[in-house]
Design brief:
Blueprint lengths: L2 E3 H10 L5 E4 L6 H9 L5 E4 L3 H15 L3 E5 L3 H5 L1 H9 L4 E7 L18 H8 L2 E4 L6 H13 L6 E6 H5 L1 E3 L15 H13 L3 E5 L7 H11 L3 E3 L14 E2 L1 H7 L5 E5 L4 H7 L6 E6 L2 H5 L6 E4 L2 H13 L9 H18 L3 H11 L5 E3 L4 H9 L8 E2 L10 H11 L5 E6 H6 L4 H6 L5 E6 L4 H10 L14 H8 L2 E4 L3 H12 L5 E6 L22
Parallel strand pairs: 2-3, 2-4, 4-5, 5-7, 6-7, 9-10, 9-12, 10-11, 12-13, 13-14, 15-16, 15-17, 17-18, 18-20, 19-20
Antiparallel strand pairs: 1-8
Helix pairs in contact: 1-2, 1-7, 3-5, 3-18, 9-14, 10-14, 16-17, 16-23
Length: 545
Amino acid sequence: MPYVTGGKALFDSVLQYGVDTVFGLPGGQTYEIFDAIYAASDKVTLITTRNESGAAYMAFGYACSSGKVGVYTVVPGPGFLNAAAALSTAYGCNAPVLCLAGQIPSHAIGRGIGYLHDIPDQLGIAERLTKWAARIDHPADAPDHVRLAFKHLQTGRARPVSLEMPLDIMAQQAEVEMLAPVTYENVEPDEALIDAAAEMLGAAGHPMIYLGGGAQHAGEEVLELAEMLQAPVIAQRAGKGVVSDRHYLSQSYPAGHRLWPEVDVVLGVGTRLKYPRLHWGTDDDLKIIHIDIDPQELERISTPTVGILADARTGLRALIDAVATRNSSRPSRKDELTDLKQAMRNEFVQNIQPQMDYLQAIRDALPDDGIFVDEITQVGFASWYGFPVYQPRTFISSGYCGNLGFGYPTSLGVKIANPDKQVVAIAGDGGFMFNMSELATAVKYNIATVTIVFNDGAFANVTRAQTQRYGGRVIGTDLHNPDFVKLAESFGAVGYRAKSPQQLRETLVRGLAENRPVIIDVPLPDKTNPWQYLLLPKVRPKPAG
């Protein structure tokens, strides 16, 4: 058995799982990990960021856009906490992210002595932000703990995990037996439940399929079943792109709301079904079939008519085979749903301006396989229903976390995971400034994303709420900004300004051809309220009369 330090035992165990990129900042409690990274520099790329927050967001973007594990490493205490918002985003968005955290000397943990970077119960905090977290207390324990970490990353619901190791254990040398990676089989769905669901779908007059992020790897199966049933497919954020928006069955979230009153059977795949259940409304005439890999999710909001514990692809494949024997030939809904798609698009273009014109400009310039990273901004909100997506994992969002400032660093991780694809991120002026220091990281490593900063000099969503709900008592929302073009240039990036959708389209084409970091400043003083197509009223049970 090799005689190695704890830090090397930890990192070499992680490398066995095909990890090729690590994001992070070196610090006193992680020196041994970085020495192990140095030794493995022919196998792994290190991206050193300017803040732990940026490192964790980049790992998140890497994971969301590729489906692979995104790895970051941070010092304990402040470093771990700086990354906590991104870790919670990975939890909310079901992203396979591995946090490797340092820790103070083992003898001092929990004693409050005041060692550098000490915080109370770091492991307990990690346990509440992850699917699983553990501390490694001896170098020989590292391989088994890493194996457990990857078991949690690769089975069940994908969510982040965290491993911490005290600095004295990292430096300690011991004989360590490395453990080969283990693969795991998918859970097979219950045949009786599949048959029950197939009976309902086969007899349904107006079926619907509603997708979440858990279906991102099952696009072929979703489309096959949807075509068999002529069922519209609805997705908001996490499920976008599973079925191309060019297909008539792929409908926007607001279109799903329009169809909802007539739906008699809804099939939810890899989704909480939160909005249909809690906002659109349910009644006794609606049957709910729910496929999810997480048993807690099947019962979280309400008990479905049929709840199937399965991976999306495995469950859908079984369901397709069962529905085929129970589903009579259905007339095509192509004309009806094509008309609905166009009608909704016309509404968006008419009512949500100038956001829709700017989104169309981005879509025109971005290739089909290009990746769009949204933000908590007025254009970002509109993108949830107004930006067409054609392939899986090409629309990246922070989901229900809705954390301002996630987009720019996340987009850098997306580009690193997908070097051959074009990546466009949007941001408001407020959100961009949260992590604009990562421009230095982008230039250092030539991470060639294009970021569009929609600049209105305010936290606009708060301004609208204060104006509409508090009689115009606006406070704390106005912003002082730099010249974003000059800011980009000062970092060594490319800076442009575009003052109209047409200018943005032309500038974006030029920016994508630069093959280096680009920032485009877009003044956006006036815009309509994008929430009118997101905060939708209850439509079930149907109103009397």
